[in-house]
Amino acid sequence: xxxxxxxxxxxxxxxxxxxxxxxxxxxxxxxxxxxxxxxxxxxxxxxxxxxxxxxxxxxxxxxxxxxxxxxxxxxxxxxxxxxxxxxxxxxxxxxxxxxxxxxxxxxxxxxxxxxxxxxxxxxxxxxxxxxxxxxxxxxxxxxxxxxxxxxxxxxxxxxxxxxxxxxxxxxxxxxxxxxxxxxxxxxxxxxxxxxxxxxxxxxxxxxxxxxxxxxxxxxxxxxxxxxxxxxxxxxxxxxxxxxxxxxxxxxxxxxxxxxxxxxxxx
Amino acid sequence: xxxxxxxxxxxxxxxxxxxxxxxxxxxxxxxxxxxxxxxxxxxxxxxxxxxxxxxxxxxxxxxxxxxxxxxxxxxxxxxxxxxxxxxxxxxxxxxxxxxxxxxxxxxxxxxxxxxxxxxxxxxxxxxxxxxxxxxxxxxxxxxxxxxxxxxxxxxxxxxxxxxxxxxxxxxxxxxxxxxxxxxxxxxxxxxxxxxxxxxxxxx
Lengths: 266, 203
Hints:
heterodimer; A: 2 domains; two-stranded antiparallel ribbon; 2 strands
């Protein structure tokens, strides 16, 4: 089966459906038309841009360029994690913790996948490394953002309870253990749901894309399983690090709850 | 906030040392703390329990706050806040079975542990919060208006019980109260606190 190339006409047709949806939302005064269109335009612009970048990186394979692109992707993901939290750690921590957690989990797992599991030659072959890293970052980003948001928000709302436990002589770790567990569970929920529903309720996007592009289904399935496991591990480890370090940061060395270390994102 | 807290010896706690003043509580002594709202009584108690950053030093038996883990300090120096907070559905999720005599003294039956927290009255919460804090066997009790929500019967019960703790166990107590009659009943001296100064009152 050959890949059927999409014409601009095909994409315009798909875009007109989104525009139709936007028109309908204006009519119904849902207030999301603008967001919908802006997001749609961003999708087109960003994907076109990355397409161009990938095209040139694929034709000119060099570790330096690939690293640069990876770092930029990491930074953008870090910014996104920060922007999604209503209560976030103030100062550099807000950006740094999410970014560091993503770096630790996404980069190390992508490296393991490239070197040990897929074993491509050279290991940084961009056709593998960039999409893998992108998928890792995109999902880990979700887990970390959800986990940190839940952590900070709960700490803010349950201040009296946390301090009530401190007054009873509990350690900082015991005083925030409930919230920490909840936050980690919240961060992991989307990927656990995705694994549980994979193939029954939904055909994962990557696999669908591969099949549409002409790959034999069993090959696509094997890659999808690999990706699912990698993403789960990446999201899990990243969320663990972010929530653990984040919860410690909410207390000082005298185990006092220091909510002034959070800033409110309006 | 300026708290310079200095040393004490014996099972007692020293509070703050503005120029010319030396604040300490002896073992077995109950001292009241009073002042208009906003004058910093709660802030003072929170600093003593090391819940907020502060300057100065607090010592218990010659050992300063900083020389032990903060949670150990708070176990010894127990703050009972004016409003208690609860996280489990039932009372049992917050404490082990206290002594039945003590429960009866504060007007509870042993079955209280199965009660739902959501159905507790403010007075019940206050009495149970007091019991809960005692379970860590503190050496110093910091009570922030512990009888504010209680009628005269239970107010008297708490007062009696704290007096017993001081007598039997040598507990040192700082008790925030505005009620001058209560001040007379529970303490022989106290501290009057204003935003600018703190002064000692002998009864």
